[in-house]
Write a structure and sequence with these properties.
The chain is of the alpha+beta class. The protein contains seven helices and three strands; from the N terminus they run H-H-H-E-H-E-E-H-H-H.
C-alpha cells in the first residue's frame, strides 16, 4: 500500500488510430524531452525550498493584508518568494523572503505593489458612481427624456 502512494503517476493523452508500442515509446520520449527542457516555475514557494536554493535570502515586511495584489505583481516579474504571516502583532504583518540576487527586481515589484494599493485607496466605489448617474438622469429636463424615448421607439421599429 505504501509503495503505491509513493510512486508517481502521469496522465498521457495520445490520439491515434491504433496504440502500438512504437507510438507509446514516441509519446513517452516527447514527454520526457518536454519535462527536461520545461522552463523553471517561478512564484510563491515554501521558505524551506527558497532557503535551499544556495543564495542568501533577504526579507521585506508588508503591513497591508492585501497580499494577493503582491502575488500578482510578483508573478509579473517572475520572482521566487515565500510569504510568512507574523501573527504575534496586531494587525498581522507579512514577511516576504526572496533570493538575494533578486533584490533589484523585488524593489521594482514592491514599488508597483505600492502604486496599485494607492490607486485602490483613491478609487470611488461603483455604487456611488451609479447613484450619481441615477441622479443625473432624474434631473434631466423633460424634453430631453421625451427625445430619448422617441429615439428608442424609432430604433425598435
Amino acid at each position: 500500500m505504501q509503495e503505491e502512494s509513493t510512486q508517481r503517476t502521469i496522465a498521457l493523452v495520445i490520439r491515434t488510430g491504433r496504440l502500438t508500442e512504437i507510438v507509446l515509446k514516441r509519446a513517452m520520449i516527447l514527454y520526457l524531452n518536454y519535462k527536461q527542457h520545461a522552463p523553471e516555475k517561478h512564484g510563491r514557494i515554501s521558505v524551506k525550498k527558497l532557503m535551499g536554493k544556495d543564495q542568501g535570502a533577504n526579507t521585506m515586511e508588508i503591513n497591508n493584508a492585501n497580499i494577493k495584489t503582491f502575488n500578482r505583481v510578483a508573478a509579473r516579474y517572475n520572482i521566487d518568494y515565500a510569504v510568512q504571516k507574523d501573527k504575534s502583532q496586531n494587525p498581522p504583518k507579512y514577511i516576504i523572503y526572496f533570493k538575494g540576487r533578486d533584490a533589484d527586481v523585488i524593489a521594482r515589484a514592491f514599488r508597483d505593489f505600492c502604486d496599485l494599493n494607492e490607486k485602490k485607496k483613491n478609487r470611488e466605489p461603483l455604487r456611488k458612481k451609479l447613484e450619481k448617474v441615477k441622479e443625473a438622469i432624474a434631473n434631466r429636463p423633460e424634453r430631453e427624456r421625451q427625445k430619448q424615448k422617441e429615439k428608442t421607439l424609432e430604433a425598435s421599429l
